[in-house]
Amino acid sequence: MSNPAPKAPASTLQEAGRSNRVGGVENLATTVFAAAMILLIYAGWSNRSETYLTAESGPGYALGIIGASLMLLLLLYPLRKRVRFMRHLGPVKFWFRSHMLLGVVGPICILYHASFKLGSMNSNIALICMLTVASSGLIGRYFYRKIHHGLYGNRASLKELLDNEALRKIRLADTLDSLPRIKQQLQAIQTWEARVDRGVVVAGIRIILFGLHSHWLQLKLLILANRAISSHAQVSGKSAEWTRAQRLIMRRYLGEFFAATRKVAGFSFFERMFSLWHLLHMPLFIMMVITGVIHVIAVHMY
Description:
The protein is an all-alpha fold. Helix content is 79%, strand content 0%.
């Protein structure tokens, strides 16, 4: 087996390395934030039978005002993108991060305001609308990440993804020169990736099946590659350290290749889903604002 020698330009690899480090920090910060919010929700739900807060007065009432205000501030992000005089108010990336933050903290404030309980009819409708919008935001965030670079990166293009995948194929082909059986199976997966489905449902099912198949194939090829590397090491008298290094390289290359392949295969589907989500999310938000206003008026009038 020949030693793997990546052929990608050094500048490209350095840029990829920087991008990976930034993406890693963003992923870590997001994970810590998500864990803190989940703990807050769990703590509130676990103590919902207690009467620490009341919606009518004190901190519970204040949380309702804060939560509603934060939800209204969500509009700043779409306004920043579409209104001309706001285009100079900082980068879109900052506003998008703020939008995501407010979209999580606002509903949690409202949940604490309601003490994680149902109340009158108008408050229940307002609460359900808010939870629907928050859930819709999380779904939209999932679609967003499938067609963008990282959590807050620029929008990707299919051509760009294909180019990146081509780079990985070059590196993988170089590594797999002496493993023709594995190369044949990698080529076979391209027939799945190249399919284009017109219907959203059919495309969604295909993406799920493709994901399951590609994960299984990735594991299978990793086992085959490790066996081939061990056999080659025995025949050639290579050291255990060399064998471990080759296995790590093979594992990384296969991981990168299949991750890129899955993203290319699902790109068109998630692009369509993201467009459909855009059509639905704003009406849901407007409905939430209307029910929230009705709730506030009803509470203060009756």
